[in-house]
């Protein structure tokens, strides 16, 4: 979720107006209760490579125990942001906390699992050796791993390939092995960067089930994926980022607060009536007796219908449709810029 | 991490290939030595001269071991940091609960151990062949072996340092280039001894300061060669310009500075 920035219904993060506000000096230390409440807290995070701004001003929070979707087009700064949260890259300015500890802190990493995009590891290992090695690097005892490794291999469906070396694995199989290594130490927070991109539908379903199981045991999952249909049915909350800034967020658990598209068939739609509808939605299109509009919250639907009838329109059909995450993504991000 | 490095070398057959090549070298050296000793028996060459020639052969064998060990160390370790950064393999490791310096030092220790095993087997094998087949013994084999090992660790640390900055190919080219400069500088300094040319000696010293590997070998050669053999200049390693103990101290400091830079840069850089 985003921190409360006032009454904005979209909870849009305000643009930082000047460089002074971007400086570290204005970043307030998070309170103890905030740190306890959030698995991740990011304030005005910025990363610059030479003259290229990879992450402009990222501010967001992720509650403990939720599945959080991190969405944005290519080049939006998602991977760089994840790298900063994991200590793989240093922020130019701003602050980031993982489980109440500064991002990249060794103690924080003890509780973090990570599946990188395009997971690569020593190809001379078998999956069991890979998971065992990662477990040892995380401080899990060999005795515990002896029991846990076969369970994890079974969970990700690699038992038939347990004695094969990773060099003979497909991308999907490597992702399964990578997912198992990310979970070997039962982390409190799991970062998954495109975990299903190489998987078939059954594999995706397996990953979905694993992610939910992790949430059920109390872990937080930070999910970066381009497969929006997967995100939509898996995540509790999503944010959309563009050029390293949060553009908007959506709580997928709150159906009533969701944006929706309304298809209306009505006669006697006057110009005043159409103009009046704009208070509930930003895109009103009329084609003869058919009207389509997008509303920011489904809670406004009764008011819209009342307004139409009150304006003298004869309404034959009033059909709200849930806006898919993909449609929302396209609405928010605009057209493809070929990044 | 040190254990992984060892296992990787074994699984990727690097260790076995290197050892096989080493056995091949020892076989060729042993056959050559035996043939030479046999020829001497039949030719009636005086025992004093025989001893000096076989001693020179031993030094050539040890020099070959030295070159092989340094090049092997460089080639096997050049991909370990830069390659894992390029491929992204490092992402899954560097996010584990350990400091970056632990990753780098762990890998470094793994290669140090491998170089140690390689030098011990090859050096020990060559010395043993010299003793049992040729009947000659290096003067201070332990000192010599330790210095050859030091030379390998210097090359390893330089390889690691460049590996934190550049791609595998670039860091390999730079390190081998530096070893080449040191090699040439060492021989130029050696040649300067014949004419007592201070300018040529200066070129050699500067080269040794840039990369002290060859200077360490020349000290090792000085430690192993008999004083008589050195004074009679039977061997190409009969050093006229002998690197001082201070140069060995410099090589040790150089090694730790290179390793320190590698650790610092690897800890600070984005992955």
What is the compact description of this entry?
The complex is a heterodimer of chains A (339) and B (271). Chain A has 339 residues and is an alpha/beta fold.
Structure description:
The complex is a heterodimer of chains A (339) and B (271). Chain A is α/β, with parallel strands linked by helices and 339 residues long. In chain A, 32% of the residues lie in helices and 28% in strands. Chain A has twelve helices and 14 strands. Chain A has helices spanning 19-22, 32-37, 78-86, 106-109, 127-137, 142-155, 171-183, 201-216, 228-234, 271-277, 301-310, 325-333, and strands at residues 38-49, 52-63, 67-71, 93-98, 101-102, 112-115, 189-193, 220-224, 237-242, 245-251, 260-267, 281-287, 290-295, 314-322. In chain A, the strands form three sheets. In chain A, strands 6-7-8-3-9-10 form a six-stranded mixed sheet, sandwiched between helices. In chain A, strands 2-1-4-5 form a four-stranded antiparallel sheet. The radius of gyration of chain B is 20 Å and the shape is globular. Chain B is mostly helical. Chain B is built from twelve helices and no strands. Chain B has helices spanning 2-11, 14-43, 47-77, 82-87, 89-94, 100-134, 141-163, 168-195, 198-210, 213-224, 227-232, 245-268. The model of chain B has no long low-confidence stretch (mean pLDDT 88). The chains are: A alpha/beta (339), B mainly alpha (271). Chain A binds chain B through residues 83, 86-90, 106-107, 109-110, 112, 114, 116, 118-122, 124-125, 133-134, 137-139, 178, 181, and chain B through 4, 7-8, 11-12, 87-89, 91-99, 268, 270-271.
């Amino acid at each position: 979720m985003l921190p409360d920035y006032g009454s904005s219904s979209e909870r849009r993060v305000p643009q930082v107006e000047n460089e002074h506000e971007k400086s570290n000096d204005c970043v307030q230390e998070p309170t103890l209760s905030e740190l306890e409440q959030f698995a991740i807290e990011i304030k005005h995070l910025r990363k610059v490579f030479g003259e290229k701004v990879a992450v402009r001003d990222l501010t967001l929070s992720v509650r403990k125990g939720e599945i959080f979707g991190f969405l944005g087009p290519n080049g939006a700064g998602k991977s760089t942001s994840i790298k900063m949260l994991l200590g793989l890259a240093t922020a130019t300015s701003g602050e980031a906390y993982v489980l109440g500890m500064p991002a990249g802190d060794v103690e924080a990493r003890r509780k973090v699992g990570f599946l990188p995009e395009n997971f690569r590891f020593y190809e001379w290992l078998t999956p069991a050796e890979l998971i065992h090695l990662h477990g040892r690097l995380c401080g899990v005892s060999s005795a515990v791993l002896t029991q846990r490794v076969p369970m994890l291999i079974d969970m990700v469906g690699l038992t038939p390939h347990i004695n094969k070396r990773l060099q003979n694995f497909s991308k999907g199989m490597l992702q399964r092995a990578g997912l198992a290594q990310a979970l070997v130490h039962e982390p409190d927070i799991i970062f998954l960067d495109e975990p299903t991109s190489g998987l078939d539908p059954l594999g995706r379903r397996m990953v979905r089930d694993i992610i939910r199981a992790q949430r059920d045991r109390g872990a937080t999952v930070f999910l970066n994926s381009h497969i929006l249909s997967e995100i939509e049915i898996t995540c509790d909350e999503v944010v959309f980022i563009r050029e390293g800034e949060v553009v908007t967020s959506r709580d997928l658990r709150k159906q009533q607060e969701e944006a929706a598209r309304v298809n209306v068939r009505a006669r006697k739609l006057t110009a005043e009536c159409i103009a009046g509808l704009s208070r509930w939605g930003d895109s009103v299109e009329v084609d003869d007796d058919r009207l389509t509009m997008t509303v920011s919250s489904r809670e406004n639907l009764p008011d819209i219908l009342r307004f139409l009838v009150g304006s003298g329109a004869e309404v034959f059909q009033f059909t709200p449709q849930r806006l898919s995450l993909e449609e929302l993504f396209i609405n928010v991000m605009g057209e493809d810029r070929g990044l | 991490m040190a254990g992984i490095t060892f296992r990787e070398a074994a699984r990727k057959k690097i260790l076995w290939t290197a050892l096989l090549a080493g056995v091949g070298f020892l076989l060729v050296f042993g056959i050559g030595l035996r043939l030479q000793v046999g020829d001497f028996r039949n030719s009636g060459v005086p025992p004093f001269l025989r001893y000096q020639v076989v001693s020179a052969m031993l030094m050539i064998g040890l020099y070959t071991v030295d070159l092989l060990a340094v090049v092997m160390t460089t080639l096997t370790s050049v991909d370990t940091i830069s390659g894992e950064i390029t491929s992204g393999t490092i992402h899954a490791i560097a996010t584990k609960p350990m400091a970056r310096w632990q990753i780098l030092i762990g890998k470094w220790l793994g290669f140090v151990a491998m170089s140690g095993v390689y030098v011990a087997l090859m050096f020990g094998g060559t010395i043993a062949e010299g003793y049992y087949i040729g009947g000659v013994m290096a003067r201070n084999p332990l000192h010599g072996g330790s210095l050859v090992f030091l030379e390998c660790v210097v090359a390893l640390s330089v390889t690691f340092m460049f590996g934190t900055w550049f791609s595998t190919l670039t860091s390999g080219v730079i390190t081998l280039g530096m070893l080449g400069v040191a090699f040439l500088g060492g021989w130029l300094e050696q040649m300067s001894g014949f004419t007592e040319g201070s300018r040529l000696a200066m070129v050699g010293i500067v080269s040794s300061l840039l990369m002290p590997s060859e200077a360490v070998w020349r000290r090792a050669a000085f430690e192993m060669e008999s004083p008589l053999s050195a004074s009679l200049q039977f061997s190409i390693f009969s050093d006229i310009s002998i690197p001082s103990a201070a140069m060995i101290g410099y090589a040790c400091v150089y090694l730790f500075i290179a390793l320190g830079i590698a650790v610092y840069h690897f800890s600070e850089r984005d992955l």
